[in-house]
Amino acid sequence: MKKLFSTFVSCFILCASAASGFAAEKPNIIFIMVDDAGIGDFENYGGKHLSTPIMKKMAAEGMQFNNAYSGNAVCAPTRCTLMTGKHPGHVIRRANQSNKGLLPLAARTPTVASMLKKAGYATGGFGKWGLGNPGTTGVPEKHGFDLWYGYYDQKHAHDYYPEYLVKNSERIELPGNKKGAKGQYTHYLIEAETLKFIEDNKDRPFFCYAAWTPPHGQYVIPQDDPNLQLYKDKPWNQTVKNYAGMVSLLDQGVGRVLDKLKELGIDDNTLVIYTSDNGANGPFIKALNSNGGLKGGKRSLYEGGIRAPFVARWPGKIKPGTQSDLLVGHLDLMATAADMLDIKAPAKDGASFLPTLLGKEQSGHEFLYFELYEGKFQQCLRMGKWKAYRRGLKDPAELYDLSTDPAETKNIAEQHPEVVKQMEQILTREHTPSPNYTTPDHASSGKKQKRKK
């Protein structure tokens, strides 16, 4: 009996020790999302004009996703989908504004950060929040973040030389920017706080959400920044040069994050994802091919507005130099993080892409659904090689075969009526009515659309 008891105790200790070891090895997660950079701005996605060696190096050391999508085609809706793990037809923010003004996240809305905080993670956010201003139910510290440093209001984030930033709803004065002075460029401060958070939490698991604001307008960068100097002899106007410098500045900043992980000895236990929140702005589509030759840009649900650069690096876990055609989106972060920890994700719209990261086969999403109320209502659906798009709930959908027509130049709806019927049924089903937005049955002309050829 004593021997049996001794064996039981020994087994219990070993199991407890293994569980403790697993907890100690919970992987860190760093999600770096830059603002308004198009897929065509990055060298590894075919970009020809800008210097982005860090994303290229990350792809060589990790995995590049070639069918990745932003949460939506504009700032706040993307952030809402990313944080909640819900697709755009289920979230509160379906445009930057609504018919009731700015909409904060409701109290107790589960987020990636709140899920990870409950799992024992330190949680920090840096840059643009955009889902609730100080004094509302939507502030990040009420949604799982131990620390947020940067901007809460998205319009405030347009200013790179403001008089203050915000840290956990408190104003942090920037004396170098008082009375119109331009002494403290905010991205330098936000990047420094990102690196500090990583160092401060090197001995425990952490989630770092780097929602860095460049290259969103205003298009300004210190004139002595070496990243701007890369383009001083280019035949572009100053706005385009500034934008280019901002993209390269961000890319180099990601490099400094990777260097910090190596310096701290936590590189092998950290998943880093590098992406952008939506498609490029118009001026840079023309000057730099920032949408990579795709149709549309920011605020459009054609591919140029939502197709995203998306690279993941996790030494020892992800096979270097891997390319994946798996259909993935920002809404999948919550499900993937939950899968990494073997816990249940609060939302069900996302799908974990952890098997793909680890080199295993997986089927992934049946479809990805989007809707947006920016200027005009839009819906789209990506399903396999097919893409459907429409501007009214009862309008006929356009149909594109992205395997042969990635730039959506030829509407082939009339040739594939059964595919269109199936996709229109999904478009109708996945839209949930919201009191905050007016959804038209037909496009804004007020006339029923005919099917375009």
UniProtKB/TrEMBL annotation:
One Pfam family named in its UniProt record: Sulfatase
Biased composition (Polar residues): 433-442
Region Disordered: start-end pairs: 423-453
GO molecular function: hydrolase activity
Biased composition (Basic and acidic residues): 423-432
Signal sequence region: 1-18
CDD domains, alphabetized: ARS_like (cd16145)
Keywords of the record: Hydrolase, Signal
InterPro entries (UniProt xref): Alkaline_phosphatase_core_sf, GAG_Ulvan_Degrading_Sulfatases, Sulfatase_CS, Sulfatase_N
Domain Sulfatase N-terminal intervals: 27-343
Name of the protein described by the UniProt record: Arylsulfatase A
